[in-house]
Structures are given as structure tokens and as C-alpha cells.
Amino acid sequence: xxxxxxxxxxxxxxxxxxxxxxxxxxxxxxxxxxxxxxxxxxxxxxxxxxxxxxxxxxxxxxxxxxxxxxxxxxxxxxxxxxxxxxxxxxxxxxxxxxxxxxxxxxxxxxxxxxxxxxxxxxxxxxxxxxxxxxxxxxxxxxxxxxxxxxxxxxxxxxxxxxxxxxxxxxxxxxxxxxxxxxxxxxxxxxxxxxxxxxxxxxxxxxxxxxxxxxxxxxxxxxxxxxxxxxxxxxxxxxxxxxxxxxxxxxxxxxxxxxxxxxxxxxxxxxxxxxxxxxxxxxxxxxxxxxxxxxxxxxxxxxxxxxxxxxxxxxxxxxxxxxxxxxxxxxxxxxxxxxxxxxxxxxxxxxxxxxxxxxxxxxxxxxxxxxxxxxxxxxxxxxxxxxxxxxxxxxxxxxxxxxxxxxxxxxxxxxxxxxxxxxxxxxxxxxxxxxxxxxxxxxxxxxxxxxxxxxxxxxxxxxxxxxxxxxxxxxxxxxxxxxxxxxxxxxxxxxxxxxxxxxxxxxxxxxxxxxxxxxxxxxxxxxxxxxxxxxxxxxxxxxxxxxxxxxxxxxxxxxxxxxxxxxxxxxxxxxxxxxxxxxxxxxxxxxxxxxxxxxxxxxxxxxxxxxxxxxxxxxxxxxxxxxxxxxxxxxxxxxxxxxxxxxxxxxxxxxxxxxxxxxxxxxxxxxxxxxxxxxxxxxxxxxxxxxxxxxxxxxxxxxxxxxxxxxxxxxxxxxxxxxxxxxxxxxxxxxxx
Length: 736
Prior knowledge:
This protein is an alpha+beta fold. It contains 20 helices and 30 strands. The radius of gyration is 26 Å and the shape is globular. The chain starts with a strand and ends in an 8-residue tail after the last strand.
């Protein structure tokens, strides 16, 4: 798979190109501007005391117009980047290193296919897509000081690139490294340690999942059902919004920048929380390629089928120039060729139903009861997500995934399968009734923390043997263990008590790991006063994280070092590794790594007994998407810990050429919701609503985040108006 350089634009042409982009707004017709202004007049945006935009429109399309306008006010930079990534034009801004991310996008859908999907959409959806584009374009028209990096005009077909109505999702499992190896030099990189060509997170990567709890009225003080909405995402990845129309829309929650629907949230009657299901819904098919008469074919049973080819030309920025590469891409009926293993080309199949996915994602926000929600779920286009549900009628429910191709269970789809064998093909989809669900379990609670659904409702959980293995391959994790313990004891819950439960500081991972360390010390009895003192700290620890805890500092680095450098077999998961180090690993190994941890803390922080809050910090210095960190600049101590250790309130922190650890993912937007005659909710957003350092809402929730001090959600119009700090129509100048 070779490429050739198609053209090089000299500096002068590049500058001319940029200049033409900067004055693009001059090409907008008066007719279009008038249309935008008329729609803007039908939209009212009320910013509350935390900058949350409450968007009111006559129609759903009006609300979408205002919602995208408000998102651009808060962080146009992130809106634009999400679409640059999705439509495959990121290399034009960020350089050649993003070229194969762009090619990945184009392998699954071209611009022409996106337009076709838009054109075949139902009229109501086309109106929303047009309103999405108009809202952003009107923002750019009324804010000439904002200079897009590339996209000076947004189009209504652009949302079609999001495979399940979301940004990111399944396509990120496709390895750009393998795409590059194949399409640059037809090179095989083989398979990874999992036996696949897909991307798998490293064992210590902060889990990019979520927690969702639904609790029936039998465990709440009011007798009403409650929902915990707790996505674990990159910080500043989602904004908090409220969209209302006179056509029945009234949704509050988190929106990924650039989406025109609330992704995780609630309306007056019900709420939904998406967690990552980690189901097996992406399959790799090894294709046997045959060249005949200068043409490419692939074997399928007893026939040779032609390989579909097309050319894709991508632009990329290099220095002051824009260059282009043209690729010949390949596809079988299984999907695009994404990599090679030995002499086999590999096609990767995943869900790609943009119209249906956007339809499901939007209408979900307008459902009013369990029956309607269940009917909506029959669309089956939520491929990567599980859904935790609660409603005003007192129902609680859980759907473990929503898109499951029907497959022959005699094949192991966790590994690549033989694409020449028709029996490996997908054979339609499982019905909703055949998938893993939990509806109103007698125990009165449901949880998912990205772990197995077979513990989601305690003893009333679904049974593993009743379902194909590909529906739920994920094992238990420490967060799941933690959640189940707490929910078994939960009673008389209020919103504040639910927050307390969701932020419980106990870390069950260390309950497993640390006793093994103490036992090793007691057996070996090394003559080291410093080691003895540190072991006594661990012996007395209650396994709870806090800003003041010295044991937490020791435990974090000890577990990290042990996982990275210890002798446990590499195919073990984290829970298995912790058990191994406690019960099977050489005792001397644990003591040596713990001694190294003590020395590391002394070197980096001056003393081994440094409290966790001195190390674990929150810092946001500017609005850049790729954050920078500086130990010499102000930061806040954070008494939270990694979800790897079993922390429900996940805080994924790391060093970045720094001594201290700085959080970049985990608890970001969090909400607790109670349903009844009126919906009540509290929420938290890491940092604040705005990406602009000059805005008061850039960091007005940072200290509250550190202190776990949630804000009350203003849901009803009268409450919103009481807290209003700005009320305006899109296009009007507003002081923020």
C-alpha cells in the first residue's frame, strides 16, 4: 500500500489559503444571515450563576441552534477540534502525526457518504442537523474575532461521522499505528498480547469509563428513585447544558462539545447514564487476498470476490506548507482493511449506522417513561455503551449494551476470525429482549462501574450462562466491588447522602495488596528503621484516601511501581495481579519495591512521609486542549485517587515533567438526580463551564470540586430566572 506526494503548496499559497479562511464570513449571503437572525430571535439563553446555559427555543431546531451557539461561546476550540478529528482533517492543523487518524476516519466514511446519510435522514433530523450547523456558523458570523484553525463553515452532514451519536466511541479501538504500517508499506505488525490488532489500554491507564447507580424508592428518604450520573472522561471534555423547547424537549446534563443532544443526563420524568460496557462488538476478519489479472480479490467460501478500492487524498500541515498524500484504500463486505497479519489482510467490522444512531441518541432525551425508553432502545445503535436508568414512576433499569451482532458461538470473536468462512459473518442483530437487561430488581439498586453485568444487581443479577460470551466479556473490577458493598448497606438516601456514597474514600484494591506487604515485612524482619516506620503507617491505614494521608502516597507509588516492574505474569488483570503479589510473589520483591518507593518519595518531595494532597493536584493554567502543568504555579490539593485502586470518585493523575501528579481525567461532570412530582438534582463540573481563562466560569467550580461541594441544579424556568446572571438571544453581546 503505497502513497505518493500529490502536491505541495508553497508558503505564499498557504498564507493565501489562511487569509481566504479568515475572511470567509464575507461570503455569507444576506439571505442566510437573515434566516439566522430570525431563528436567533426565537431562542433565549439564560446563563445561571455558574455559567450553565439554559437554552429555550420555540422548536427543537431552535433549541439546537441556541445550544450549539452557547457551546461555541464556552469553548469553540473544543467544538472545532472534535469535528476536525471526526471528519478526518486534523492533520491539516496538527501535522503529519495525525494523518493516520484522518485516514482511519475516511476508511469508515467519506464526505460524500456523510452527505448521502444526511440526505436520507428524516426531515425532523435534517432540521436538527441544519440547526446545529447554523448555530455554529451564526456564532462565527457574530464573532469575527474568533479565528477557527480550519473550519470556517460547519455543514449539516458533519454529525454523521459519529458512529453512535457520540464523539469517539468504537472507532478509537482501531489502531492508527497498524493503519500506517499497512497503508505506507504493507507491513505486518502482528498481533498484540491480547491476540488482536485492536487498541487496548495499558494496565495502569486511568479507566476511561464511568459509574452509574440507579436506586429505587425503597432505599431513599423520599421514596423516589434516584440516579447517579458519573462519567469518567478527560477533564473539560464535556460541558453542562440545559435545552428546552415548546415541542417537548427539556433535557439537562452533559454534552460532548459539538453534540446537539444531551448525552448523559435527565429530563423531568427520567434519567439515563451511559457507562462503557466493554462488550465484544468490534470484530476482525482475516481476508485471503488473491491477485488475478492485475486485480485484487478475496476468498469467500468457494468464490473470489473483488476487493473494493478507492482513492483518498489527505492534506497535512508541515512547517509553513500544506502537503498531500493519496492512499488507495481497500474494503471487503466485512469492512475496511485496517491492517495486516502475516500474509492476511484484516478487515475490521464495527457498527456504522449514523442516521439511526443520531435518531436514537436524540429521541432518548424526550422519552417520558420506561415503556417509551424500552421502545427507543429497540433501535439498537448504542454500541459501546451500557445504560443505567431511573424514572419518576419509581422504575430502575439497566441495559448492558444495545448493539449485538448475532454470531456463531463456535468461533472465538475475541480474536480475529477467518473471513473466508461464511459462518463467521454477522447474522443480523440480537433483539433487545435477547440482550442483558435488569428491570426493577427486588434488591432495589443497580450499579455498573465498567465491570461485569453479572453482579449489577447483587443476587438478582443476570446469569452468565444465559448469554453468549461476547455480550459481557469484562471481568469484575475494584470499583464494582466497592459499589456493591456500599449499595447493599444504602438506606434512607438523600441527594447529599448519595453524593457521600459516590465519593466514599475507601480503596478495596489496597485492602488486597497492602496486607501482603505487611506480611512480607513481618516474615523477613529487615533491619531498616525507615522501612519499619513506613510499614507501621501502612499497617495502621484504613485504606481510605484523603489529602492528609501519608499511607495513600506510599500505596499509590508502591502499587504503580509493583505493577510496572513486578514479576506477575503480564496477561493478568489488575485484580489478579494484586492477589498474586499478596499470596504468590516473593516476599523480598515486595519489600525491595516498597523500599524503592520510599526512596522515590524522598527524592521527589524531600521526605517519604509526604501527605497525598501535597502530591496529587488539580491545575488548569489555560484553555489549551493539551494541558500544561507547572509545579511552581498554583494548584489545589485533591483527596481522590485512581479508579484502578477501586476509587468510585476517579481521579486519574500523572506527572508531566513534574514532581507532582496532576489530574487529567476521571470525575468530570457528575450529577445526582431524584425523580418524583418534581425533579431535583445537584451537579459538579471539574473546573468550570468555560474554556476561556478570562471567564469567571473558567475555574469557579475548581475549589468546590476539590471540596466535593456540589451545586444545586436549576431545572425549572422560575428557578433558572432567580439565578440568572445573563439573559440574551444568540448574536447579542453579553458580559460573562
